[in-house]
Specification:
140 residues; 5 helices; globular
Length: 140
């Protein structure tokens, strides 16, 4: 599965779109990790609570960038379409949160991985899921 994902990233009919999705996701992941660090180390939140809050903060950010750039040809234009798409991406990403939080928790609790590194792994794992469902439903 990962091998075919990486192959599609380089070549294949969806390669340009997939690369853009990865770029947006990488920028959002950096923002999410920064927010997580601030919530945990500065505000004193429990790392799992901080992760959920950080995820929610980046959902709108990612939707706007993906709608304007990644899925430009299928962009949700107009107020109604924009908000319907935002609702759909929220459903997709809300269903991806348990995947990301599960990976985060498992790596921290059972492997002793630092929470920021574990969260980055969770972002990567849930990113494949998010792309498939966003590409097919949010902008499909």
């Amino acid at each position: 599965m990962i091998r075919s994902f990486l192959r599609e990233l380089v070549s294949g009919p969806i390669a340009p779109q997939l690369r853009k999705f990865v770029v947006v996701g990488t920028v959002a992941a950096g923002l999410q990790l920064l927010l997580l660090w601030l919530f945990v180390d500065s505000a004193g939140l429990y790392y799992l609570v901080g992760a959920v809050v950080a995820i929610e903060c980046t959902i709108v950010f990612q939707y706007v960038l993906n709608n304007r750039w990644t899925f430009r040809a299928d962009r949700n234009e107009g107020t109604r379409a924009f908000f319907v798409g935002l609702g759909r991406t929220n459903v997709v990403r809300a269903t991806a949160i348990p995947i990301q939080i599960g990976v985060l928790y498992a790596l921290v609790a059972f492997q002793g991985v630092p929470y920021l590194l574990a969260n980055a792994a969770g972002i990567a794992v849930s990113g494949v899921y998010r792309y498939v469902f966003d590409a097919r439903w949010t902008w499909g």
